[in-house]
């Protein structure tokens, strides 16, 4: 059996947000510099790519958590990840409220196995980032920048706004900063990524940062049923 500790460095990111906020487009744009427009999937997607972080090759795995089941908290995906990127659309207040509820739930409800809740008295924890997408549609804006900045500050998450469609540099800086914050995982995983892999559905190569990559369909990871986030107990 393969020993993960002997493997090359690996970073796992969970990208979470409501449907149609541009999560898939954001991931593909970051990894390939290409724009895929609107894309909707009823299942989680796993992207695998080798990227360079501070000059060191790192195997990056990104799970695009489907927004089609937004009434269930993505416990298993967060347990799997080393960091979380929460995405909302600046033109959709409900998507911002969903991202805020995810941050609130992470803060008040410990998730066993997740580094987002470090032992009391320690400084380490799961790196978090909040990104408001679709700034190119500023005339349709429903979420002021200051609101995103405020909720991020409360929860210790980095904050950015960007336009995936316009290929804005803030998108790359946001993800690069999140990756730089991730430390090599030392904990035991709740499950292996190999158990999540479905059939290969595509691939892409980024000439500037990556050397290889693929996109894999993931059957949704079974997660405990929870009441709607707004009703979660403190």
UniProtKB/TrEMBL annotation:
Gene Ontology molecular functions: G protein activity; GTP binding
Q: Which residues form the signal peptide?
A: none
Instruction: Please list every transmembrane segment annotated in the UniProt record, as residue ranges.
Output: none
Q: What class of enzyme is it?
A: hydrolase
**Entry's InterPro entries?**
P-loop_NTPase (IPR027417), Ras-related_GTPase (IPR051065), Small_GTP-bd (IPR005225), Small_GTPase (IPR001806)
Q: Which SUPFAM superfamilies match?
A: P-loop containing nucleoside triphosphate hydrolases
From what superkingdom does this record's organism come? Eukaryota
Under which EC number(s) is this enzyme classified?
A: 3.6.5.2
Which of UniProt's keywords are assigned here?
Answer: Hydrolase
Catalytic activity as recorded in UniProt: GTP + H2O = GDP + phosphate + H(+)
Which Pfam families does this one have? Ras (PF00071)
Which PANTHER family does the UniProt record give? RAS-LIKE FAMILY MEMBER 11
NCBIfam families, alphabetized: small_GTP (TIGR00231)
Annotated family: Belongs to the small GTPase superfamily. Ras family.
The protein here is known as: small monomeric GTPase
